[in-house]
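The instructor's notes for this session suggest beginning with a concrete chain rather than abstract definitions. Hand out the sequence below and ask the class to guess, before any prediction is shown, which regions might be ordered.
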Amino acid sequence: MTAQMPKILHVITRLDPGGSATNTIVSADQLRKHGFDTFLAYGPTHDPDRTVRHLLDKLNIKQFLIPNLVRNPSPLKDWQAMRQLRNIIRDGHFDLIHTHTSKAGVLGRMASHACKKPSIHTPHGHIFYGYFGPILTWLFIYMERMMAKHTDKIISLTDIETSESLENGIGKTEQYVTIHSGVPLSSLTNIDAAEGTRFRRQYSIPERAFLFISIGRLVPVKGFDILINAFIKTRFTQQPVYLAIVGDGDERKRLESIASQSPVGENIRFTGSMPDIRPALSAANTFVLASRNEGMGRVFIEAMAAGIPTIGTSVGGVPSLISDGRNGILVPGENIDALSAALKRVESDRVTMKEIGRNAAKSVFPEYDQSTMVQQIADVYRTVLEKHRHI
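After discussion, reveal the predicted structure:
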């Protein structure tokens, strides 16, 4: 191990927009302030227009592109990606490997084990349901069980994630540490109301309309089809009510078709991806995300920090963040009727929702701040590196 600046290699499958990639890039950047020399290895994004790779260049993070590191199983490409990672680790004399997400987690830890280097893995949620079919899900769980034997620490986003992982036979209790996905909380308080006004004007949403905002990748696991169908079904007490969906992805055309064919299609907006979501949050009366599975939901923290009443589904780690009726509303996953009832409730009981919004803001400070997350990760690094220094 180097004496001054331990070299850390982060490995992630791809840099698609979303919490896992953003979290990884922010960590790699901020950990340099804690005395670590950080690098990032990642696979290609299938759509070059949907990536957060530009953040790497902006933050001047040293990087490696692994062409064969792809999301879906591919024995030949997987072997080639593992070999390339092994060569990078060996030739770069890295001290610690920190892997992120399922595929990169498996291949990165195989490579680190081959080089006899310590490893830390952050799954960024689990894939036990909502992502793949039963066979592929079983395969990933099996591989996670195997790789946990060669992992020094596993970082969960929530205690719920740890419990579900242990229930599936992945690792031992002492391997786990919970570190919440942090966001820059100070940038989300007191957002300029003028930004919200401009957002509404840009997307032709009346100033007095009640506006639901949902933000995320337009992929099946995020449940935007469930949300749209719940919105269509709801008979609101006051008019007009709008829904704005911020994000992009493979599901966009299908979702736009569902919306356009409904009686309330003219009240549903698709904005595409936004590099800065604060204008959308400023415009919102309520934030809602109907995920089928969610590690924790970084965007929930952002909405809650802004003091916006929030509706989420009781899946994955979301219940560790949202306490139903206190700092948000929880509904069962994939339940259109329950979600519709929640939409109507927040639109009709605005006094209670304002109180919930205030509670939401209080509940995320300072535990979910970005600086807290980075400090905790740095502490884990030092513990693992110190342990291996004496082996």
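Then share the key points. The CA atoms of residues 288 and 311 lie 5 Å apart. The longest strand covers residues 7-12.
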